[in-house]
Design a protein that fits this description.
The structure holds two protein chains of two kinds. Chain A is mainly β. In chain A, the strands form two sheets. In chain A, strands 2, 4, 5, 6, 9, 10 and 11 form a seven-stranded mixed β-sheet that branches. In chain A, a hairpin with a 5-residue loop joins strand 4 and strand 5. Chain A starts with a strand and ends with a strand. The chains are: A mainly beta, B mainly beta. The interface between A and B is medium-sized, with 25 and 25 residues.
């Protein structure tokens, strides 16, 4: 079965960077895109971006453009999300989520999620 | 960006109740809408995709409908395990925005 296992919690100072990993198993890693979503404490879900695990193409939310970099290592079946110039508002749980296509290949959704990684930004 | 507005933000219901949550998009998104629920401290879980298709393994008491700008998620008979926060997400345009969430609590 599909498993997405994320790296552990991080505490960072303002201005620093953080890199969260998401190791995938149980499916063909290069066939499906990996998305990243975050959730600030007590708040809703916020989409950050995604990577085509096959060719490495990425798409980011404009909100994070210039600060976020999503990469992948196909040999390790692992995706990474790096966020730079951290500020207190970036304190959140960060999730990776596997893209799912319906049988027509037209409709998408996020069908498997990692357990989440808490990133705390504090001086 | 496409805005998704969920209503209500909070609802209190009893086991066995029929519950309906609405998600309105700021512009037409066809049927490119998914629904998730999330329990405290857990990752979201996919319920419905393509606006009305039940994800494998999800109980049939969940159903989705709508297209364009207005969508609904219905739980036909609320069960104890359904008390959670529900989110819609559009996957038509970037960024793939989420609604603000609907918390379903025990009356």
């Amino acid at each position: 079965q599909v498993h997405l296992v994320q790296s552990g919690a991080e505490v960072k100072k303002p201005g620093a960077s953080v890199k969260v990993s998401c190791r995938a198993s149980g499916y063909s890693f290069i066939t499906y895109a990996m998305h990243w979503v975050r959730q600030a404490p007590g708040q809703g879900l916020e989409w950050m971006g995604w990577i085509n695990a096959g060719n490495g193409n990425t798409k980011y939310s404009q909100k994070f453009q210039g600060r976020v970099t999503i990469t992948r290592d196909t040999s390790a079946t692992t995706a990474y999300m790096e966020l730079s110039s951290l500020r207190s508002e970036d304190t959140a749980v960060y999730y990776c989520a596997k893209l799912h296509y319906d049988s027509s290949g037209y409709y998408m959704s996020l069908d498997h999620w990692g357990q989440g990684t808490l990133v705390t930004v504090s001086s | 960006d496409i805005q998704l507005t969920q209503s209500p933000s909070f609802l209190s219901a009893s086991v066995g109740d029929r519950v309906t949550i609405t998600c309105r998009a700021s512009q037409g998104i066809g049927s490119h809408l998914a629904w998730y629920h999330q329990k405290p401290g857990k990752a979201p879980n996919l319920l419905i995709y393509a606006a009305s298709t039940l994800q494998s393994g999800v109980p049939s008491r969940f159903s989705g409908s709508g297209s364009g700008t207005e969508f609904t998620l219905t739980i036909s008979s609320l069960q104890p395990e359904d008390f959670a926060t529900y989110y819609c997400q559009q996957l038509d345009n970037y960024p793939h925005t989420f609604g603000g969430g609907t918390k379903v609590d025990i009356k």
